[in-house]
Amino acid sequence: MPEALIFRPIHQLAPLLERKEISPVELFNEAIERIHQLQPKLNSFITITEEEGRKAATEAESEIRKGQYRGPLHGIPISIKDLFATRGVRTTAGSKVLAKWIPDFDATAVARLHQAGMVLVGKTNMHEFAYGVTNDNPHYGPARNPWDPTRVAGGSSGGSAAAVASSECTASLGSDTGGSIRTPAAVCGVVGLKPTYGRVSRYGAIPLAWSLDHVGPLTKSVEDAAIMLAAIAGPDPKDPSASLRPLPDYRKEMQGSISGVRLGVPRQYFFEHVDPEIQKLVTAAIRQLASMGTTSVEVDIPDLESCSAMEAHITLAEATSYHEPYLKRQADAYSPGVRTNLEAGRYLLATDYVKSQRARTLLQRNFNEAFNRADVIVSPTLPAFSPPVGEVWVQSGDLRENVIDAFLRFNIPYDLTGFPAISIPCGLSSTGLPIGLQIAGRAFDETTVLRVANAYERSTEWHLARYALPS
Amino acid sequence: MPRNILVRLLSRRAWIQRSGIGIAALLFAPPLRAEEQALDATLRSMATVTGVDLSDSWLQPTAELVGIIVSDSQSLRALDLGSIEPATYFKAD
Fold first, then answer.
1. Which of A132, A173, A206, A431 could form a disulfide with A93 if both were Cys (CB 3.0 to 4.6 A apart)?
2. What is the pLDDT of residue B93?
3. Residue contacts between A and B (CB atoms, under 8 Å)
4. SS3 state of residue B76
5. Which residue of A has its CA nearest to B64?
């Protein structure tokens, strides 16, 4: 029996759609069937947009039949994190506060995906207001990990990662303030790309922390991440931080050899307190890249121990500032964990906030020193595996630590610097849990990050590994 | 900070971040250390500054979290940033 279409990545489906060998409606039906089958097990979605999706799929089919093919996302079933405003579709941000909000506009990234011809299948589950790393959501239930549904899908874009990993959709749109794309991508065994700050407009994404929020894709392959990035990236007058830099042709420029690329390996910080199995498989991935002609150089990046405090001061201050009006009106609608964070944001020093913002420039300089010697920096995405739902402790090698501290640790340096970083699957643990390899690059050099990630992916089969759910 | 105190603080953070169970646990937690009580009092006294009078049930978990972040901020406060200005995208036009 041939494999269902919905298991395939965008770059395989797109030519079939363009040549009219498959239909967007057929693809949509497979996605919806799968969502209905898996929603009780994984809870990937907060809202399923069956009616809107069917209409979009029918329109896409009609357009393609008439020869009006828009490009590689035309007719592709895509989900959107429920953080992004979607015109006419409820947008909760995983909260009770916005449980009934139906926006009359689309977030810029969503509008661009619509222009590219996506078929929206639903709004995905997320940590309440993106303020957490597990996606253990008290209002809509936890998003569960397809590899082991007793475990969390990671957060805050957990529903997006679970939906892509379990083929309830082909790709998803997420956001990353402290690893919220890369963490769930790593624990669910999919690709998660956090582009450079300013590369993708944040307009219409409910903010967690304006100066740290990034928008990016979660996909089944690196090439798919490039396709999604090309669709959503670019200047936007509605977002004052959006860059005017011209866009490269990511998909074209990411192809080719990585011979001669210098891999920076930061043994300090990024390889400390890491589960031995993760350490082993990430080291094996670096060896694999070396076998393809890259060279490894050890790099030392100072001041990383301050990242946690920087992230805390900036996130708490900015989040509390945004939520203050809601807190005044409906404080009881927040979960205790998120409300505590928001209350605490009132009591931190403005001088610590400003110092954190200043320290980001120092951190950028430190990373740029390393990027004088290396083209990309590689590390584990996470030091520990996804914990069971409700568990707040994880074992990171020799360190038992809070899951928040563990999951933020290797991610936040790239939210603070704004530099691009991707998580790609690089193996499975002895108990069958996915492991993520993080590859980071210079500001606006997504192309090199994608090129190294793509070369690795094509030389291994980890991205083809499957969970035990029904296929 | 001694390791055992750090672990205790992180343990409380875990409770706080989890759910209402965590809040309940905090309410029945052992008596606060002197510095935690001082932080509670400090937060309470800031009501005129913040414009918010935190109820008792929120005061303690909030004070706990503020205490953790302040403890964790020593390396940040020690950084010598020279003449570095904060990055900003604010534009006057």
1. A206
2. 66
3. 114
4. helix
5. A344
Dump pLDDT digits (tens) for A89-135: 999 999 999 999 999 999 999 999 999 999 999 999 999 999 999 99
Is A194 one of the annotated active-site residues of the chain? no
Does A294 touch chain B if contact means CB atoms closer than 8 Å?
A: no
Which of A291, A210, A211, A285 lies closest to A258, judged by CA? Answer: A291
Where are the domains positioned within chain A? 5-464
ipTM of the complex: 0.91
> Which residues 187-226 on chain A approach chain B with CB closer than 8 angstroms?
211
DSSP structural state of residue B90? -
Chain A residues whose beta carbon lies within 8 Å of the beta carbon of residue B72: 308-309, 312
Interchain CB contact of A357 with B (< 8 Å):
yes
Determine the CATH number of domain A5-464.
3.90.1300.10
Using the Cβ of B52 and the Cβ atoms of chain A, whether some distance falls under 8 Å is answered with: yes
Contact with chain A for residue B66, Cβ under 8 A: yes
Report the DSSP pairing between strands A171-176 and A214-219.
antiparallel
Segment A418-449, tens digit of pLDDT: 999 999 999 999 999 999 999 999 999 999 99
CA distance B19 to chain A (A): 5
* B84 in A contact zone (CB under 8 Å): yes
* B-chain residues near A138 (CB < 8 A): 19
Contacts of A454 (CB under 8 A, 6+ apart): A222, A223, A226, A254, A255
C-alpha triplet B87, A339, A326: angle, nearest 5° = 75
Active site residue A238: no
pTM: 0.94
Chain B residues in contact with A401 (beta carbon < 8 A): 10
The answer on pLDDT for A8 being more than 80 is yes
A180 belongs to the catalytic site: yes
Q: How confident is the model at residue B7 (pLDDT cuts 50, 70, 90)?
A: very low
pLDDT at B18: 46
**Sequence spans of domains, chain B:** 3-71
Taking only the tens place, the pLDDT of each residue in A146-174 is 999 999 999 999 999 999 999 999 999 99
In chain A, what percentage of residues exceed pLDDT 90?
97
Helical axes A158-165 vs A24-42, angle rounded to 10°: 120
